[in-house]
Amino acid sequence: MDKVDNNRVIIFDTTLRDGEQALQQSLNERQKLQIALMLEQLGVDVIEAGFPVSSPGDFSSVKLIGQNLKNAIPCGLSRAVERDIDAVKEALSSCERFRIHTFIATSDVHVQDKLRKSFDDILGMAEHAIKHARQYTDDVEFSCEDAGRTPIDNLCRMVEHAIKAGAKTVNIPDTVGYTIPSEFGNIIANLFNRVPNIDQAVISVHCHNDLGMATGNSLVAVQNGARQVEVCVNGLGERAGNCSLEEVAMALRTRKTLFNGLYTNIVPTNIARASQMVAGICNEKVPPHKAIVGSNAFAHSSGIHQDGVLKNRSTYEIITPESVGFKENNLHMTARSGRHMIKSRLNALGYADDSFNLDDVYSRFLELADKKGEVFDYDLESLLFFSQTMEDKTQFTLENLNVICGGSGTIPTASVHMKIGDEYFIDSGTGDGPVDAVFNCITRLTRIDCKLVDYNLSATSGGMNAQGKVDVDVMYKGRKYHGRGLSTDVIESSALALVNACNAIYRAQIIELEKAASHNGMPADPDSQEAIAAMEAKAASLVRGQI
Question: Quick one: pLDDT at residue 469?
Fold first, then answer.
């Protein structure tokens, strides 16, 4: 085992073991290996690859991961029984170095009601397991399951005996997320004050989030001497989840002075990529308000906040999005946005201050924001070029649709009837599912070859007649467009959302034509009747599908 640097906090990742326990279905070998290699790139020190004795698939995955890791230490979990320990050894025997992580419960409720043994019996089982594991490797970790609810005298005794038996790392888990930071920090402090041989092992913590305390408990443990934190990417884990890797890593980095220079080997710019990969492979979407990696983590919609960020990002950002691998922060244009935000976005889009009347644009922006909720760049541009009358006009309208799907052997088929300009068209076709079939028809009818990049379905009410809201993001010519649809039929909602996005694309392309045709790059007065007529003529002159 590497010589311990007391300023380094070891990151032990258990996404592939404890994190996977939260998933509706197990990951396959290829998926697990992909995540493991990403974790290694992220700078994780120890990767708990699985629980080898639990199934042949888990055994095989642990073996495969161990064979492919170059820097991170592979680890397998075992109960405090020889058969489990032997399975870890067998799975990782081809590795130059590996860790055996063995555990047994130590709290009264577990010892008495689950294991139905005396604490002395548990102590003996732990010692035997550690000594058995030490036959195979010097890198043995022992966990006192449910340490957070273990009487402190018993916990001190168990830690002392575990170290004496040969454990190089002793883990203190808050298995059920029961403790709060002041309480958990006191547990760690007591161990360092009362266990005579504690300097011979690394003290680790493994905290769950049942009360939302996992990160706080882990950090206060570090302040009291713990030097390994067990985490999962995106905070995955049983019940409410595990301590979040990204939160611990960025807290230590951001508050380095507070933590007296403690550091991790985590490469922060790889955090976003790791988060997105794990979310995608595990089919567990990151909550928008998730710290560090959520879609709203660097979003600002308040006008006061936006104004501050535009003047000095540190006013409302303690971490930059670039520092964790995101391209930029996200300033949402809503009815809460101020004039400074609107002016800044127009400038960023290439419009000089003297090319628009800010008061006029802002007034019409507020009207549009009240109607749409969120305004996008292409919407903002439309305020410069279109009258409200023109903005409300649509090139594409969904008239009707019919879908056939379901049942074994049934190919999802859709028939879509649309009004395009003043004409009516119909198209039929198949897809991988009913929504895909509908989308294929719409893109053929509009001849807008856009790519779907995000799809989100939510209910706006409860009961049998609940409205299904669908939000889609599509890419067209390098720009993202948003669409929203609302209906009691989710397939119709999906169709309406895509049609909404296609109309946004259509208007954006008219603007691009107008900008190209303009001599000075200045938008026409949108309230001018001549401008309105010119725009409507421009729209009418565009051949369907040539935008």
Answer: 80
Please give the angle made by the CA atoms of 185, 188 and 193, to the nearest 5 degrees.
Answer: 120
pLDDT for 524: 53
Query: Tens of pLDDT along 45-86?
Result: 999 999 999 999 999 999 999 999 999 999 999 999 999 999
Question: What whole-number distance in Å separates Cα of residue 241 and Cα of residue 258?
Answer: 26
Sheet with 413-420: strands ordered across: 396-404, 413-420, 423-430
Cβ(340)–Cβ(310) under 8 Å?
yes
| Residue 182 tokens, joined | 């002041």
Pair of tokens at residue 85: 């320990």
* Ordered structural domains, the chain, with CATH: 10-282 (3.20.20.70), 299-370 (no CATH), 392-541 (3.30.160.270)
Average pLDDT, the chain: 85
Residue 300, token pair as written in the block = 């600002």
Query: Any idea how long the chain is?
Result: 547
Which string of b and e fits 248-279 if b means at least 16 CB within 10 Å?
bbbbbbeeeeebeebebbbebebbbbbbbbbb
For β-strands 423-430 and 413-420, DSSP reports them as antiparallel
Residue 532 tokens, joined: 């309105």
Q: Which phi and psi (to 5°) does residue 13 adopt?
A: -100, 130
Cβ atoms of residues 515 and 524 within 8 Å: no
Average pLDDT of the residues in 284-301? 79
User: What is the per-residue DSSP string for 375-421?
Assistant: B-HHHHHHHHH--HHHHH--SEEEEEEEEE--STTPPPEEEEEEEET
Contact call for residues 144 and 173 (beta carbons, < 8 A): yes
Tell me which residue of 209, 213, 210, 232 sits closest to 221, measured CA to CA.
213
Q: Which phi and psi angles does 515 have, rounded to 5°?
A: -65, -40
